[in-house]
Amino acid sequence: MFDHAVADAALVISELLSNAILHAYPLPGERLQVAWAMDASSVEVAVSDGGSPTVPRAGHPSPSSVSGRGLSIVEHLCKTWGVRTDDVGLTVWAVVAAPRFNGSGLLTDLAWRTDGGLP
Question: Are 44 and 113 in contact (CB under 8 A)?
Fold first, then answer.
């Protein structure tokens, strides 16, 4: 089960990073930032950029559209996701369920953060 979470987290990071490259300004120093944090039941990923004229949101493209599905995929794969802004730019974060077995063979399911923040 944890291996699937790693694959899901990699896909989510790929989507968020692609969106930042295509739609946003870079952070100072012409860069983007990728971060992640794990606990016993989830992995939180985040991509920060210099912001953009629009706020990221899941789209509803037509069946013939060749783009616009990425954040809907993120929404489907994640427990939750959101957008946070600060003085420097914008961060899109997502929490992927990543349950692991503890020593007794039971799934560990700790409470997960809802504030969307990474340390």
Answer: yes
